[in-house]
Amino acid sequence: MKCVEKFDFCMDTVIYQKIYGKNSEVAIDEATRKIQYLECLLSFFQEESDIYQINSKAGKDWVKVNQDTIEILKMAVKISELSAGVFDVTTGVLNDYWRHLKKNQRKPDKNQIDDLMRLINYRDILINPEEKLVKLSRFNQKIDLGGIGKGYAGEKVIDVYKDYSIQSGFINLGGNVVTIGKPHWNRNWIIGIRDPFSEDGGIFGNLKVEDQAVVTSGGYERYYEINGFKYHHILDPRNGFPARLEWQSVTVVAESSSLADALSTAIFIMSQKELVGFLENFPSLGVILVAHPGEIVVSKNLKEIFQKINQKMSIIYIN
Question: Which note does the record give on the cofactor (predicted)?
């Protein structure tokens, strides 16, 4: 069976594809074009994107958008509702503020953050799916799809693979892994899970998956540091600051890569108490949590497909 591999850089990350099938060359190139198209559509920074236009006309005008923009925004709003606002894509102004702080190596100002917090509310995303129109209710509000965009792109790439009769392969969008079928030499794809406490990027375990997405969120790669204090990039939309580090990393396994992407972010922000009730809404969702060195928390529905590699770490199973 013909195998084709390809590396690209898109959506501000390295993308790796590996697929099997007689149409694999044309499929992998079409998948790359789809990702590039989605980046142009959903980018926070590109002036011609739907998202940039929505943000620039916030509080003023409706914006005609593409169907993919409608789909991802509807999905984002739904996940925001299910997470009681722990996931919220209207944090664009906050993300801008923290990018500025990082660039200039400055400490945050709580008063400035409190002012920006008034603009954060997913309920202010108005969507008219019939006319393909979107509007933000208030002036200066901004949508940023960084917490769900790669997951959505992964789903659309799998659709491209299916259009070309690809039955085996995967795509890795900067750590967002989405699989189709299984490798012809094995029963499952094996996905390594990085140890957030490893300085050399080592893994503590792996997952055996088929037709599933595996997404990990953590604050150990993207951060800036002032006087020994680290400010990581995952913000809590409820207070405007980087999420408290109750978890060092969160891995989510789901059939939907959009869902896995968004929920890995939401769960990273949640406390242990919040998480217990939240997971009841998603009985099929698999999670792997790392809070402390030497301890892994794994949902019981992953027991058969998770394998521990670091034998020094203990496992706690949760429902």
Answer: Magnesium. Can also use manganese.
How many Å apart are CA 134 and CA 289, to the nearest integer?
Answer: 36
Domain of 59, in residue numbers: 45-136
How far, in Å, CA of 47 to CA of 45, rounded? 6
CATH of the domain at 115: 1.10.3980.10
Residue 261 in tokens: 């992407």
Token pair for 161:
């693979």
What the block records as the tokens of 238 is 């409820």
Instruction: Please list the alpha-helical segments (H only) found in the chain.
Output: 24-42, 50-56, 67-82, 92-104, 110-117, 149-163, 257-269, 272-279
Q: Convert the pLDDT of each residue in 5-27 to its tens digit.
A: 999 999 999 999 999 999 999 99
Residues belonging to the binding site for Mg(2+) are: 147, 261, 265
Kindly report the pTM of this predicted structure: 0.94
Q: What CATH number does the domain containing 257 carry?
A: 3.10.520.10
Q: Domains in the chain: how many in total?
A: 2
Q: Is the pLDDT of residue 263 over 90?
A: yes
Numbered residues of the known binding site: 147, 261, 265
Q: Which amino acid is located at 261 in the chain? A: D
**In this predicted structure, what is the pLDDT of residue 220?**
66
Describe the crossing of helices 24-42 and 67-82 by its angle, rounded to 10 degrees: 70
Q: Which residue has the tokens 């084709």?
A: 4
Residue 315, number of CB atoms within 10 A of its CB: 13
Which of 72, 101, 136 is the C-terminal boundary of a domain?
Answer: 136
* DSSP character string of 143-201: ---TTTHHHHHHHHHHHHHHHTT--EEEEEETTEEEEES--TTSSSEEEEEE-TT-TT-
Q: How are the residues of the chain apportioned to helix, strand and coil, as percentages rounded to the nearest 5?
A: 35, 30, 40
Q: What is the pLDDT of residues 136-182, one digit of tens each?
A: 999 999 999 999 999 999 999 999 999 999 999 999 999 899 999 99
